[in-house]
Amino acid sequence: MTEEMMKKIEEIEGIRARIMKGGGDKALEKQKARGKMTARERIAYLCDEGTFCEYDLFAKHLGRDYGLDKKEVPADGVVTGFGKINGRGAFIYSEDFTVIAGTFGEMHGRKISKTVDLACRMGYPLIGINDSGGARVTEEMGALSQYGQLFFRHVRASGVVPQIALVMGPVAGGQAYSPALMDFIFMVEKTSYMFIAGPPLVKAVVFEDVTVEDLGGPHVHAEISGVSDLTTKNDADCLEHTKELLSYLPLNNKERAPYVEPKDDPNRTDEELARIIPTDPNKSYDMHDVIYRIVDDGKFFEIKREYAKNMIIGFARMDGHVVGIVASNPAVMAGCLDFKSSDKGSRFIRFCNAFNIPLINLQDVPAYLIGSKSERDGIIRHGAKMLYAYAEATVPKITIVLRKAYAGGYLAMCSKDLGADFLFELPTAEICLMGPSGAVNILFRKEMKAAENPEEVRQKRLKEFYEKFVNPLYSAGLQHVDDIIDPRRMRPVLISALEITRNKIDTLPEKKHGITPV
User: Fold this and answer.
1) Mind listing the pLDDT tens digit for each residue in 117-156?
2) According to the CATH classification, is domain 272-429+481-501 in 3.90.226.10?
3) Residue 444 and residue 471 in contact, taking contact as beta carbons nearer than 8 Å
């Protein structure tokens, strides 16, 4: 090697080292004092050691106004590249808050858009680590245009590769729509928040005094808005959960989710299941207790746990194969479907369908929530999303009716009519057009009104109705149900059905796309 070449290499490596320090030692120390990792530390924690390959390190910002032309903006405030996470590839971008608050300028946006493009082209998941003060006002049109470019790419990538947004600091203004267009959003307690307008602007425009936490903190988006899928304790916890989520997902829509050699016996039965599920239709129980007992090793990765708790969604494995679980929860609102749970469930169903993940549906649902408030909340249009999602889904769909399955709730939680490949029911199952009590009140209202003892007549007719219609043998006899199964055998029955449906072929009519209910 010549001396001249050595000098050139040393010069470039010196510049590289300076850029990799981001905003400098003081800014890095300030970031850590807030309880946050730096942009590069987050990537190093997430990726297998030595696997991250960075590109566009030397990108230069384009701002020339208000003194920005004299300011160095290392890597334009965002680190981009490719790495391996538990041996599997992913494209990653990590915004650097130590560099002018991680603001989104034109080159910053171009780097992220390039990362989305590469993820799609190469067929790897996209992970976006967000920690930004929002748009760089000194690059107005450049930043605005790149927002549009990024949003366009998120939409084009949707259903092609998994997209995971980690909100690990502020995400303000139009930039909040980037995570919103991705598949999953994780937030961090005390250090992350999202909103389209911060407290000062909110106060100036709508005269509302509000803190960043109450405006767009993790608890708001996990429990109230439903924007966030998971709240984590700190940066490390967020990154660990990201690794866990990725372990359930395929790299892209052409692949199946990763198989893991099971340690749990596929033929395992469970006596406790016969005790957990009550025979009394009015008695409550938590569907989580059922899920943990039927999946491999009791491991269940729940999504949106704090939002619409009457619906449970998440990932698990059955005999080593990944499944998506959609379950009503009788412990909350008796398991009724409302507008929030319909949104929650339908989006998850569509994600699983896009990425070839079979669906297991556990029904104990007394119907859609009725009443004036429910109607005004848009239960018809929101509830239709569940019907649409299941009817559209071509992946294996296996349903178990544990107890109540009334009216539209029965259909919306994946009946045979909505495409269930197998539908099983327990001896406690009640599949009805409407709740038995309501049906009897309507059918025999005249007889009860004329009777000396209306309640005695009502109870007699109710008993008859139960014996005739609210009986597992009735629905099974009409071939709406494939089998009535022992609750203790739920796991082996589901695994057997999954094995049968593994090579299922189902196609939709030729079209650009369907029109989902809003």
Assistant:
1) 999 999 999 999 999 988 887 887 888 999 999 999 999 9
2) yes
3) no
